[in-house]
Amino acid sequence: MKRVGFIGLGLMGGPMAANIARAGYPLTVYNRSASKTEPLRELGARVAVSPKEAAEQSDVIVTMLSEGRAVEQVVFARDGLLAGARAGLVIIDMSTIAPDETRSIAARLSPHQVKMLDAPVMGSTGPAAAGALGIMVGGEEEVFEAQRDLLGVMGKDLYYLGPQGSGAQMKLSMNLLVAAQLASLCEAMVMASKAGLDLAQVGQIIASSGIASNLISRKVANIVKQDYAPAFALKHIQKDLGLIVRTAESVGAAIPVTSLIHQLYTAAREQGHGEEDSSALFYLLAEMAGLKL
Length: 293
Description:
This protein has 293 residues and is an alpha/beta fold. It has 15 helices and nine strands. The chain folds into two domains: 4-163, 3-Layer(aba) Sandwich (Rossmann fold); 170-288, N-(1-d-carboxylethyl)-l-norvaline Dehydrogenase, domain 2. It is globular, with a radius of gyration of 20 Å. The protein starts with a strand and ends in a 5-residue tail after the last helix.
């Protein structure tokens, strides 16, 4: 059975790595905050002191990190993955980064005979824990097929989209839709509440309407309860929107609505809501409307 390394044990990475351990793969983990490795150690994982050591112990490395710069650092630092890599190592980057970033990293790895897949995910903490994520993959198709078993431990829907960067591009397109839905939901609930309607009843009607989805229903509940424990932190969607705007400019796509939504999420993050759930955009819009919560 292939040996797996996992780098990045945050809200998403932790449960994803746990599913790999439970599936019986020999697992080595690394995280900057060592305390996050303890649940994996209890599941039998080996804890590495650096990404380099994780690479030395692995045939495949999975990374789940916050941004492109973090991925580059983990891969190319003095004690990074490349320093411990052998020819034939596969890196599956499941972070949300820009397509040009993943293509650049893959190109730098190629002379060392290290392969890379960009494989960002659809879903938040619940699907991550259940092994039910959607996984969108770019890279060489034969590398994808060779890693299908491992990816299937973390996700129930696997999509091969094409060359390097294709998974990253699809992820940004999906997050554009997510951000637009959340912003519209928050605006609708602020307007209804400001007009004197009961917020709980407004939420009930939205959640039972034709526009409802799993995403909308969960975020309606967050807003009604004013419970913003992060399933997908606002700081992450704000970061992703920046990538979306930049990528749209590079391919010549007009996204004026999304550009405005990016500004709103940036303002909400600057107000201190970055660590809360993405639905905490409601706070900013409520304040703009003079709505007392």
